[in-house]
Amino acid sequence: MFIKNLLKNSALVLTLSITPLIAAALPSDANQPIRLLADRATYSERTGVTTYSGNVTIEQGTLKIAADNLTVNLNTANRSINSAVATGRPATMQQIITQEKGLAKGQANRIDYNAVTGIVTLTGNAKLTQAGSSFSGNVIRYSLSAGDVEANAGGGQRVELVFPPSESGSRRGVR
C-alpha cells in the first residue's frame, strides 16, 4: 500500500508540476499567482505553441520548476493545454503535496505531459523523491487516470526503489 501511495502521489506531483495552470497540490497553491521567468518566450497564434527558453523557472505557491526549455501546446479553440514538455540537464520540479506528506522532488532530462491521455513521461535519468523514499529509472510513465506506473531502466541498468526504514522499526517486506 505504501508503494502504491508513493507512486500515485509522485505521479500527481509531476502532473501538477507540468501543468501549473490547471491544478496544484496544496489548495492554496492554485490561488497563488504564476511567475514564469525565461531568457526568451515565443507564441504562435496559428499553431498554439508557446516556447520558453533559457533558464526557465516557474513558481506558483510551493511549486517550483526549473528547465532549460519549456514548450506548451495549446488547443487554439479554447486555450486549454494539450501537452507540455520541459527539458534540461536535468529539468527539475518540487512541490509540497500536503503538509503531512511534505516536499516531493522530481527530475529528468525530459518531462512530457499529455493532457489528452493523462500520461506523464519522465525520460533520461528520471528520479522522484518524497519523505526519504526515491524511485529512479531511465523512463518513468504514469497514467493519471489509473494511477499506474511503468518504469524502464534501459541500457543494461535497472529500475531502483529506495525506502527509508519504517518509524516503528518493523521489518515488514514490500508486497
Automatic annotation (TrEMBL):
Leader sequence range is 1-23
* Organism (species): Moraxella cuniculi DSM 21768
GO molecular function terms listed in the Swiss-Prot or TrEMBL record: glycolipid transfer activity; lipopolysaccharide binding
* Assembly and interaction partners: Component of the lipopolysaccharide transport and assembly complex.
Domain of life of the organism encoding this protein: Bacteria
UniProt-listed GO biological process terms:
Gram-negative-bacterium-type cell outer membrane assembly; lipopolysaccharide transport
What is this protein identified as? Lipopolysaccharide export system protein LptA
Keyword annotations from UniProtKB, A to Z: Periplasm, Signal, Transport
Gene3D superfamilies registered for this protein in UniProt? Lipopolysaccharide (LPS) transport protein A like domain
What compartments host this protein? Periplasm
Q: What does this protein do?
A: Involved in the assembly of lipopolysaccharide (LPS). Required for the translocation of LPS from the inner membrane to the outer membrane. May form a bridge between the inner membrane and the outer membrane, via interactions with LptC and LptD, thereby facilitating LPS transfer across the periplasm.
Q: Which HAMAP family does the record associate with it? A: LPS_assembly_LptA (MF_01914)
Its cellular-component GO annotations read: cell outer membrane; outer membrane-bounded periplasmic space
Can you give the residue ranges of the Organic solvent tolerance-like N-terminal domain? 38-146
The similarity annotation says:
Belongs to the LptA family.
Query: Pfam families, from UniProt?
Result: LptD_N (PF03968)
